[in-house]
Amino acid sequence: MAKGVIEQAMGLLSAEDRQAVGQWFARQYANESAAPGAPHLTPMEWRTLRLYAEGRSARLVAEQTNQSKRTVERNLNSIKDKMGAENRIQMIVKAVQWGML
User: What pLDDT shows up at residue 42?
Assistant: First the structure.
């Protein structure tokens, strides 16, 4: 029943407001599956991390997320710094160890 009410309420919102609500929920629950001590990532950092870990280049991640390559590079460096990793390979290893991937 609650799901139906939520769907009805979301139907009353503008597309912009629905997107904002979706982004809020993503921020609230993004780290739910990660182990304690894992760094908090923004929804875009999560998406960037997942795509990069799947083997996509920064250029391909940029194309798939509608960002510039430079923004993707910044996101990857931010994730790396948040994880305390020395390089991107270590970043992926730590993400797996924390159950983020």
Answer: 86
Q: How confident is the model at residue 1 (pLDDT cuts 50, 70, 90)?
A: very low
Provide DSSP, the chain: -HHHHHHHHHHHS-HHHHHHHHHHHHHHHTTTTSPTTPPP--HHHHHHHHHHHTT--HHHHHHHHT--HHHHHHHHHHHHHHHT-SSHHHHHHHHHHTT--
> Closest Cα partner for 100 from 47, 26, 27, 64?
47
Q: Could you tell me the pTM of the whole model?
A: 0.67
The matching CATH number, chosen from 3.90.228.20, 3.40.1260.10, 3.40.50.300, 1.10.10.10, for 31-97 is 1.10.10.10
Q: What is the mean pLDDT of residues 58-80?
A: 95
